[in-house]
Design goal:
Blueprint lengths: L2 E7 L3 E8 L2 E9 L6 H14 L7 E8 L5 H12 L3 E3 L9 E2 L9 H13 L4 E7 L2 E8 L2 E9 L1 H11 L21 H24 L7 E5 L3 H5 L7 E2 L3 H11 L3
Parallel strand pairs: 1-4, 4-5, 6-9, 7-10, 10-11
Antiparallel strand pairs: 1-2, 2-3, 7-8, 8-9
Helix pairs in contact: 1-2, 3-7
Pfam families: Pan_kinase
Family: Belongs to the type III pantothenate kinase family.
Protein name: Type III pantothenate kinase
């Protein structure tokens, strides 16, 4: 079995992970710029492969979860030119073994579905909520083998950026957890830190509580760049899986016929 390239193409960044028969390898993050060319992507991927001691001949497939349509033809062209393989897109050319109960199934992001697939295959709980702290904060609900729908809320980083760009006196702030106990800030930086981190933790807890009225005792999985930060002040997050989308892509590809 050769190397499989896994892509999680999001609105802000694209994560790339190498996988083989041993499972997932190291992940790398590049900015998502659909205006770049297929050659630009190919040269950057070759640099990653060289760093990992892998040649282009070792690549057997490119598997993509994408919510950025303009990027898709670039990745497809790159896969053919640089690795002589076709790109497999989750939800289109790569089946996701979940019933999609969305009123308009085509509107569901592939990252949501593969994350739900991974959570479903890893946990026995009948009811699962997958929270993704990405550009947006999403809560996806799984009952049995069906994706039932979910919620879309502002993202932590996008909210932070909106505050910084829309106000003259609010500084940029880190989102690290300095104290797990909420207290009022005595500097503007502390006020922002406490408000954002504990605010999103409380939002998540409140929404899970509301969703629990429709989903008895849900198991809550968190993923995304800030999952660890928010999970430290949340009462309802049961597990953190930073690579959940990659795990879902790898599971979907491994079961691909």
């Amino acid at each position: 079995m050769g190397t499989t390239l896994l892509f999680d193409a999001g609105n802000t960044n694209t994560k790339i992970c190498l996988a083989d028969e041993k499972g997932l390898g190291t992940s790398y993050t590049l900015p998502t710029r659909p205006a770049n060319t297929a050659d630009d992507w190919g040269i950057k991927i070759e640099a990653i492969l060289a760093r990992e001691g892998v040649t282009s001949r070792d690549v057997e497939a490119c598997v993509i979860s994408s919510v950025v349509p303009p990027l898709d033809p670039l990745i497809s062209s790159m896969a053919r030119r640089f690795f002589d393989c076709d790109a497999l897109f989750a939800g289109r050319t790569l089946k996701i073994a979940l019933e999609n109960c969305y009123a308009r199934p085509e509107q569901v992001g592939a990252d949501i579905l593969v994350g739900c697939l991974a959570a479903r295959m890893m946990h026995e709980s009948e009811n699962i909520i997958v929270i993704d702290f990405g550009t947006a904060t999403t809560l996806a609900c799984v009952k049995g083998s069906a994706f039932k729908g979910g919620l879309i809320c502002p993202g932590v980083l996008s909210s932070t950026a909106a505050l910084a760009s829309g106000t003259a006196k609010l500084p940029k702030v880190d989102l690290e957890i300095h104290n797990k106990t909420l207290s009022w800030g005595t500097t503007t930086e502390e006020c922002l830190n406490q408000g954002l981190v504990f605010g999103f933790g409380s939002m998540v807890d409140g929404l899970v509580e509301k969703l629990s009225e429709k989903m008895e005792d849900p198991f809550v999985v968190a993923t995304g760049g800030l999952a660890r930060n928010v999970a430290q002040v949340s009462r309802r997050i049961d597990q953190i899986r930073p690579e959940l989308v990659m795990e879902g892509l790898w599971l979907a590809y491994s079961n691909h016929e």
